[in-house]
């Protein structure tokens, strides 16, 4: 089989290689999946660079999320052969992957691969963060990196609950796109002062911030919270930690907390987990929540895919397909 792996960490374009390997054989509790599509997420890039919360065991494949077809089932026949599943695993940029049967989530066969391969990480994270944020109809939510795949999903899930959404972008061209998607306020942080605009439009500030950027923008987002506000941090696109203002935290009684999808899923009961997936899949199939695709590339063209991923102003995911 073909696989994209790296023998040492570094910039993906420099360390990733396409190699041939034997098809893995599943253990008794695992299923063998023929992978059909994967999307490129920021976490994938950080993992290859050695900057993610999970340390790679080298050599390692890249990628955490994918869709595929079960070719061999586990000893209990938990998931029948031929079932389309989405899953997360360390190293999905290969043609075949073995995962525990409990970690493979069946999806409706009519769900296209380009949607299914994105149906786990970003949609479930957006759904989970909106559900656990405590936001009510009429409250304000600020999303940094609003034009990201997560940002667009969070806008849609929030609007379904009547939550007012502000978000940040770095290009004016993205303003109309996000406004049409439902954002009430879109701020270009390259030309506008975030805190000033937020205070003018919301009065006291926003109730909750979803921050994927960190660094200076994360600090400005924190300052945009109203007294008693809450920041939920789930990414670090700037690769810089937020410089926290202790005075703000104390005198405005602000809360800053981390969010990681894996931890949230593990906290759920089996019933609650099934409900979460069913809800997200229903939204995606019914197109009440939409996912965008910018371009698809075969595994052999992963370098071209990485170049497309790095282009600014992109609206949609870059996929690696088999």
Written account of the structure:
InterPro entries: ADH-like_C (IPR013149), ADH-like_N (IPR013154), ER (IPR020843), GroES-like_sf (IPR011032), NAD(P)-bd_dom_sf (IPR036291). Residues 10-320 form the Enoyl reductase (ER) domain. There is one protein chain. 33% of the residues lie in helices and 27% in strands. It has 322 residues and is of the alpha/beta class. It folds into 2 domains: 2-119 and 291-321, Medium-chain alcohol dehydrogenases, catalytic domain (Quinone Oxidoreductase, Chain A, domain 1); 123-262, NAD(P)-binding Rossmann-like Domain (Rossmann fold, 3-Layer(aba) Sandwich), CATH 3.40.50.720. Helix 8 (215-223) links the parallel strand 12 and strand 13 (225-233). The N and C termini lie close together (11 Å).
Short descriptors:
single chain, about 325 residues, alpha/beta, Quinone Oxidoreductase, Chain A, domain 1, Rossmann fold, 2 domains, 7-stranded mixed beta sheet, 6-stranded parallel beta sheet, ER, oxidoreductase, Alcohol dehydrogenase, zinc-binding domain protein
What is the strand and helix layout of this fold?
Layout: E1 2-6, H1 12-15, E2 16-20, E3 30-39, H2 42-48, E4 60-61, E5 65-72, E6 84-88, E7 96-100, E8 105-106, H3 113-116, H4 121-132, E9 140-143, H5 149-160, E10 164-169, H6 173-181, E11 185-188, H7 194-202, E12 206-211, H8 215-223, E13 225-233, H9 246-251, E14 255-258, H10 261-267, H11 270-286, E15 293-298, H12 302-310, E16 317-321
Parallel strand pairs: 9-10, 9-12, 10-11, 12-13, 13-14, 15-16
Antiparallel strand pairs: 1-2, 1-4, 3-5, 3-7, 3-16, 5-6, 6-8
């Amino acid at each position: 089989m073909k696989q994209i792996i790296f023998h040492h960490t570094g910039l993906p374009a420099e360390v990733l290689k396409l190699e041939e390997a034997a098809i893995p054989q599943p253990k008794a509790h695992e299923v063998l999946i023929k992978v059909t599509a994967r999307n490129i997420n920021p976490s994938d890039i950080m993992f290859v660079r050695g900057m993610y919360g999970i340390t790679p065991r080298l050599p390692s494949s890249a990628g955490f999320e994918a869709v595929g077809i079960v070719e061999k089932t586990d000893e209990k026949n938990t998931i029948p052969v031929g079932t389309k599943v989405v899953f997360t695993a360390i190293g999905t940029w290969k043609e075949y992957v073995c995962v525990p049967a409990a970690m493979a989530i069946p999806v409706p066969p009519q769900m296209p691969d380009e949607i299914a391969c994105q149906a786990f990480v970003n949609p479930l994270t957006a759904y989970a963060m909106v559900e656990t944020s405590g936001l009510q109809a009429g409250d304000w939510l600020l999303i940094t990196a609003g034009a990201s795949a997560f940002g667009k999903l969070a806008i849609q899930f929030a609007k379904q609950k009547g939550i007012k959404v502000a978000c940040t972008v770095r290009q004016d061209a993205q303003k109309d796109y996000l406004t049409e998607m439902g954002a009430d306020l879109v701020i270009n942080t390259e030309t506008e002062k975030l805190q000033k605009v937020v205070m003018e439009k919301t009065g006291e500030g926003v109730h909750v911030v979803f921050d994927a950027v960190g660094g200076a923008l994360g600090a400005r987002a924190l300052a945009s919270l109203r007294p008693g506000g809450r920041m939920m941090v789930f990414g670090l696109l700037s690769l810089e930690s937020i410089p926290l203002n202790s005075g703000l935290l104390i005198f405005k009684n602000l809360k800053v907390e981390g969010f990681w999808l894996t931890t949230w899923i593990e906290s759920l009961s089996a019933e609650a987990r099934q409900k979460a997936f069913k809800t997200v899949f229903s939204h995606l199939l019914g197109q009440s929540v939409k996912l965008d695709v910018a371009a698809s590339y075969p595994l052999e063209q992963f370098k071209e895919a990485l170049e497309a991923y790095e282009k600014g102003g992109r609206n949609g995911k870059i996929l690696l397909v088999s």
